[in-house]
Amino acid sequence: MDPSHKALTRKIRQAIKAVESDSMAFIQQDVIAADLLELGCEIDRVPDLLLELLADITPSHYAGTHPAQRSYETEISGCELYAFKVESKSLGCTIYFKFTLVEDFLWIASLHKDRPGEKEK
Predict the structure, then answer these.
(1) What is the pTM assigned to this prediction?
(2) Pair 73, 14: CB distance under 8 Å
(3) Minimal CA–CA distance to 20: which of 54, 63, 59?
């Protein structure tokens, strides 16, 4: 079923390249800012946090749907969203991270402490 192991691996690699080239933005910036505040993570630390998470993520961490959920947000409408849950060594908790890639640009839809039992939009 989609997304395949190969497709997820490719998306992870593309996301790393996007962060390294500072080609990224947040969807619903106010929501993500509040989630980062809850994590005790300052906005200027986000690229390093993302690189840490992406370095540790494998396709087995995929927490999204099959097939991948599609976005309804204006900037990324219709794009596939890739959700992962992975332990952050620096934050000491499991992080839920959802993103999409448009060309070589990373759009972050969610970045927060995992909330088991809470349904993601």
Answers:
(1) 0.90
(2) no
(3) 54
Return the structure tokens found at 19. Answer: 């962060």
- pLDDT tens sequence across 48-74: 999 999 999 999 999 998 888 999 998
What pLDDT, in 10s, does the model give residues 77-121? 999 999 999 999 999 999 999 999 999 999 999 999 998 876 554
Token pair 């989630």 in the structure block, residue: 35
Q: Where are the domains of the chain?
A: 5-113
Q: How far is residue 86's CA from residue 51's CA, in Å, rounded to a whole number? A: 12
- For the domain spanning 5-113, the CATH number is 3.30.2310.40
Helix (H) or strand (E) holding 38: helix 29-39
